[in-house]
Specification:
186 residues, alpha/beta, Nucleotidyltransferase, domain 5, 5-stranded mixed sheet, 5 helices, 5 strands, globular, disordered N terminus, Tc1-like transposase DDE domain-containing protein, membrane
Length: 186
């Protein structure tokens, strides 16, 4: 077997979880009042999903994801010392495509691969973010921001162990294809 093809594969993207109530159902015969926080606080997670082991390497904050956050993630990935090339697949966010990120990735031996614009269906980590929202946010209320962050962090940290069966069916390498689709009606 040729060793040159053996690499890890990480899909990278950020998720911004807003502390508010997300309704799971809308229709109701009687009027219900649902307690909701202000929605002004958000928990940002920049994650790199290992497509083989389903482990997630993260950088989190409560302000903004920027080039500095990306550099923190690159350093964390480099510290894994996998002994093989580290290619990252991610979208075209502006903070990912700056000289600081390019320089650090080159120094650390990390390959950056960008998906075409507007193609979240090709980024495997988007499925994980949808899963986290379904498990932690929809039809749930968190009284304070601390419990909100804890619920998300716990799921993210332990999902590859506690939710392994669900993730294995969700995180397949089958991507939506748009072959033989007419773009303009004739």
């Amino acid at each position: 077997m040729c060793k040159s093809w053996r690499t890890s594969r990480f899909f990278v993207d950020a998720a911004h979880f807003v502390h508010t109530t997300f309704l799971g159902y809308l229709w109701c015969f009687t009027r219900l009042f649902i307690q909701s926080p202000s929605g002004r606080k958000r928990f940002n997670v920049l994650g790199a999903l290992n497509a083989v082991t389903l482990e997630l390497i993260t950088v989190t904050n409560e302000s903004y994801i920027n080039a500095e956050s990306v550099c923190q993630l690159l350093r964390k990935l480099s510290e894994l010392a996998l002994g093989m090339p580290i290619p990252l697949v991610w979208d075209n966010a502006r903070y990912q495509k700056c000289a600081v990120v390019f320089k650090l990735a080159d120094e650390l031996g990390i390959t950056l691969m960008y998906l075409p614009s507007y193609s979240p269906h090709l980024n495997l980590i988007e499925r994980l973010w949808r899963f986290v929202r379904k498990e932690c946010l929809y039809s749930k209320h968190y009284a304070d921001f601390s419990s909100f962050k804890t619920a998300i962090s716990t799921l993210i940290d332990r999902a590859h162990i506690t939710k392994k069966k669900q993730l294995e069916t969700l995180m397949t390498w089958k991507f939506q294809s748009f072959t033989k689709v007419p773009f303009l009606a004739e």
